[in-house]
Amino acid sequence: MKNKKILLVDDNQADLALATRAFSKLNFSKELIVANDGVEALAYLFGNNDNNGCAPEDLPALILLDLKMPRINGFEVLREIRAADKTRLVPVVIFTSSGEERDIIASHKLGANNYIQKPVKFSDFIEVIRQLVFSMNLQLTSAP
Question: N or C end of the chain: smaller count of CB under 10 Å?
Fold first, then answer.
C-alpha cells in the first residue's frame, strides 16, 4: 500500500479538531485529508464539474466516515464508495457518535469494514486512532 493518506469525513468541527489533534499527537507521518461533509468527500474521491477527483493511485489508504451529516449522510457516501470500481476496495471505518444498533447493522450491510463509536475522553480517542493506524499498517514517525 503505497498511499498512506487518510480521508476524515465529519461535519462536527469539534470532532474534526479532536481527530486532527490526535493524529498530530501520534506523529502521523502522512497526509490527513479532511472533508467537512459527504458532498466534499464525494467531490474529493470522484470529482465534480471540471474535476475528476483523485487518481486511483492517490486514493486514501483509509476513510474514516461519520454517519450523521447534512446534505449527504455517511450511509449515502458509503453506498457511493462501494458502488464505484475505483473505490470499492478502499477500507471504510464508520467513526461516529452513534451507538444505535440499526446504524451499526446498516453500515455493515453497506460494506463498512468496521464501526467505531467515537470516544468522549481524549486519551481514549488517541488510543482508538493509534489502533486504527497500527491495524492499517500506516506510519507513525515516532512514539508519542
Answer: N
